[in-house]
């Protein structure tokens, strides 16, 4: 059984994961409108991953006898100044998710909820990968600058992401 505080925090994280999917879908839509299908494909895959992460929280809350409570999702931006701005925002978002996972982890430790603590280890590790992946794209876009040929090649590389 989940303590009330853990259940509430798990539901908040569930909402954050679903909000992440919403943000990535908006970024994909922007990328499509800018004729960057590889960027859009990468972002769509990321959105699906975020839904899967949300469903892990959904299932865990249910498995532990908790009640899932879904809140409203905020409207993500539809316009950006360019691909670099998209991925800088994505990196900022992933860092916020990492912080939220850290706060949730602290709560389950304080509540001595060892099952939740062990379960959250996967998310803590996953966030390292998420930040690294998005950070590498930001670094590439900063190196590329306004070079259209390099942007074209990066778009092709991002289209090759597994699950695309």
Envelope shape: elongated
Instruction: Let me know the average pLDDT.
Output: 96
Q: Segments where pLDDT lies below 50 for 5+ residues?
A: none
The name of the CATH superfamily reads Ferritin, core subunit, four-helix bundle
Strand tally is 0
Q: Biggest sheet, open or closed, and with what strands and sense?
A: none
The CATH topology label is Ferritin
What is the rounded Rg? 17 Å
Q: Give the N-terminus to C-terminus distance in angstroms.
A: 38 Å
What is the overall number of helices?
A: 5
CATH architecture: Up-down Bundle
When the domains are counted, the total is 1
Structural class: mainly alpha
CATH C-level class is Mainly Alpha
Q: What order do the SSEs take from the amino end to the carboxyl end, as H and E?
A: HHHHH
Helix fraction by DSSP (H/I, runs of at least 4)? over 70%
As a percent range, the share of strand residues is under 5%
Structural write-up:
The structure is a single chain. The chain has 164 residues and is mainly α. The chain is built from 5 helices and no strands. The radius of gyration is 17 Å and the shape is elongated.
